[in-house]
Fold this sequence. Notes:
mainly alpha; three-stranded mixed β-sheet; 19 helices
Amino acid sequence: MRRALNADGLNLGGTPQMLALAMLVGLSGSFVLAALATAVSPVKALIGVLGAAVAVAMMLFPELAVPILCLSLPFERIGRLTDDVDTVAVSASRILGLIALASLVLHAALRKKKLHFELPVFLYGGYVAIGLMSNAWAWTPEETYRDGFRILGNLLFFFLIINAVRDYATAKRVVILWLVASMAAGLYSLGEYYYAPQTGQISESEMGLQSTRSTTVVTDLSEARSLGGGVRRLFGTTAHPTLYGLNMTMTLPFLLWAMRTNRGLWKVLCFAGILIAAYSVFLSNTRAVLLLAAFTVVFCLLRGLWRPNLQGVLALGLLAAAVLPFIPEDVYLRTLDPSLYTTSKGDSIRVRFKFWSKSWDLIGETWWHGIGNGDETTLQKMVTDEDTGYLSTQGLKASAHNEFIWVMVEVGIFGYLCFWGFVGYVTTAAFRAATLMRRAHAGEEYLFCLACQGLLIGIPMFAMQSEAFHYPLKAWWLVAPISCMMLRVARERVAVQRQELAEAVS
C-alpha cells in the first residue's frame, strides 16, 4: 500500500511528521491498552487493540479514513456507547468520523493543502449557527442542547466528505463499501427477524437503549387501536423501523447502477443485494417507506438507470409471487391493508393532521426565530384530546411529521431558508452534473449521477409526512457532497472538451 501511495506523490510513511505521529499514537495507545487490559475482559481488550490499530491507520493514511468510516455507517446503532436520552450521543461510527476529520485536517496542514468551503457548507452552516443560537430562547432547553450535536455532526460529516472525496474513483469506492456494509447489515437483521423471534424483539420504549443495541425487531403499538394489538417491525441496525426502511431504500438506486455497470458474478451479487433491500423494506412494515421504494424504482426506470427486458420483468414477477407466502402476517396487517392508508382507520395518518394544525399555531407565534431545535415535547402537550406521539425511553414525544413545517417551527424563517436552500442546492447538483456528464459522453459517471438523483430526491418527498432529515440518514449525507463533487468534475470535463475543440478548430 505504501508503494501505491508513494506512486501518487504522497510519500506518507517517510516524513518526520508521520513518524512522530506514529510514535505518539503508539505510545499513548499502549498506556491506554495496558490500563484497559486490567479492567475489561480479554475480548474487549482485543477489540480495543483492533480499534487502536484502525485509528492509527486512519491517522497515517487519510485515504483509508473515509472508506473505513463508510463501512461503519450501516452499523451505527450497534456501535453506540450511550443511550438515546443521553445529552451527548457517542458511538463507534461517530468516533471514526472524528478520527477521519482529524486525519483530513492534520494532513492538509502538513502538506499545506487548501480545505474546500463550498456554497452548501455555508448554507447548512448558517442553519447550524441559527440552530445553536436557538439555545438562548429554546422552549425545551435540554432537547435543543442535545439536538445541537446532531446538526453540528451533519455539518462536519458533509465538510469531511466534500474535502476527502475529490474524484469519481474515490466516490465509487466509498459508495461500493457502503453498499457492501448495508447488505451485511441487511443479512444480519433478516437473520434476527426469522431465527431469533423471542430474543430479538423489544418494546418501543427500549429501542434507544444501549443494552438492546444488537436487537433488530420491535413490537410496534402505533396502530394498536385499529389492529387490536402490536405488530412486529424490523428496525435492523438503526434506531427505528422507518430509518431502517429508508436506509435500505437508499441503496436501491446504487444497486441498480452497480448491476448496470457490471457483468457476470458481480451482477448476480448486485441483484441479490436488491432482493435483500426490497425484502427489508417490506419487513420494516412502514407504509410511507414502501411507497417511497416504489417511487424510487419507477424514477430509476424513467431516468434510464434501470432498463429491464421482458425476460427480466417476467423473472421478477415469478420471484415476487414465490416470495409472497413468506411475507409475515404483521406486514399484511399494517402495511398491505388499504384501509390503514385512510384517516378513518390509520391512526398515524389521522394524528398527522392534528400535528400539522398545532404546528401552524406555533409558526404564527414564533415565525421569525422558532422554538428551538429538537423540541419533541411542546407539540405533544398541545394535543390535549388524546395521548399520542411515539413512545420513547422518556415517554411520549411528538413533532409535526412534516419536515417542511417543522424546520420553520424549530428555527424560524431565516434558518428555514438556509436549510432548504442547502437541500435544494445539493439535490439539483446531481441533475446538473448528469446533464454535463451526458454532454461529455461520460457513460458510467452519467449513470452514477442518476443514482445520486434517485437517492437525493426521494428524501425531500418522504419529508412531506415525516422529519426525515432529523433521522441519522448517513447515506444521504454521504451522497449529497459527492453530488456536489460530481458537478465540479463534470464542469471541468466540459471545459476541457471545449478547450480541445477550440484548439482543434484554430
